[in-house]
Amino acid sequence: MDKVEQWRDTPLDEWKESVLKLAPQAEGFLQQINSHDDLSVASYHDVVMKKWHTNNVAILGDAAHALSPQLGQGVNLALVDASTLAQCLRELDLPEALTSYSERRKKHLAFYQRATRWATPFFQSDYRLLGTARDLSFPVMNSLPWARKQMTATMAGLKTGPFGILSPDNFV
Ligand SMILES: Cc1cc2nc3c(=O)[nH]c(=O)nc-3n(C[C@H](O)[C@H](O)[C@H](O)COP(=O)(O)OP(=O)(O)OC[C@H]3O[C@@H](n4cnc5c(N)ncnc54)[C@H](O)[C@@H]3O)c2cc1C
Fold first, then answer.
1. How far is 39 from 26, CA to CA, in rounded Å?
2. pLDDT band at residue 65, thresholds of 50, 70 and 90?
3. pLDDT 10s digits, 133-153
């Protein structure tokens, strides 16, 4: 992010050349880009709330818990929010339903908020050592059955803690 302004001041073709070196197959896409303004600059920040309701409002999705995209879970979390809220509203009157919604979402959201924050330096930072550690350790973890199961559950959006996995009841 601290190089965006500098990038805007350099000719677009220089940037295109550097992209082509990394990914020659991007040529078709690059031809469609004629100015710096054709590109969006993505920056991320975490939204952290203690509870996701007031007396008559429920907060869902990114508004409730925007996080960095390392684990690709934004949509999963938003869908589980919606499913959980619907379930609470079916079972309880409004004030209790909203309180219960926040309670039931706590563990699942806490796990993914911590995990994405923890994973960010390994995927998006200037620390090359962390990238190397990631590239060396992930294949090893993938070959260990327990670790592989945890990694798969994490990517499927099902984890509620280091050892916890979301119950299928959450998707009724
Ligand atoms: C670059 C990037 C890559 C991502 N990759 C993934 C991925 O691989 N997997 C994944 O699961 N998630 C991914 N996400 C996250 C995912 O897109 C979000 O978590 C998800 O879209 C959140 O859904 P939402 O409904 O809460 O919010 P949004 O999808 O942002 O929907 C909010 C809607 O409200 C509308 N709106 C805003 N203000 C108003 C207003 N005042 N009145 C009326 N409407 C309004 C907006 O136009 C928008 O349509 C990614 C996000 C980004 C930015």
1. 14
2. very high
3. 999 999 999 999 999 999 999
Q: Is the CB of 74 under 6 A from ligand 1?
A: yes
Token pair recorded at residue 142: 């993938």
Verify whether ligand 1 is closer than 6 Å to residue 73 (CB atom).
yes
Q: Whose CA is nearest to atom 51 of ligand 1?
A: 69
% the chain with pLDDT above 70: 97
Residue nearest to atom 24 of ligand 1 (CA): 61
Q: What angle do CA 103, 107, 108 make, to 5 degrees?
A: 110
Residue boundaries of the structural domains of the chain: 4-38, 61-171
Angle among Cα 109, 113, 116 to the nearest 5 degrees reads: 135
To test ligand 1's pocket by mutation, which of 52, 73, 75 has the most ligand atoms within 8 angstroms of CB?
75
Is the pLDDT at 172 greater than 60? The verdict is: no
Q: How far is the CA of 64 from the centre of ligand 1 (A)?
A: 11
User: Is the CB of 157 inside a 6 Å radius of any atom of ligand 1?
Assistant: no
Are 45 and 65 in contact by the 8 Å Cβ rule? The answer is no
Give the pLDDT band (50/70/90) at residue 43.
confident
Give CA separation, 74 vs 62, 68, 94, 95, in Å: 7, 9, 26, 26
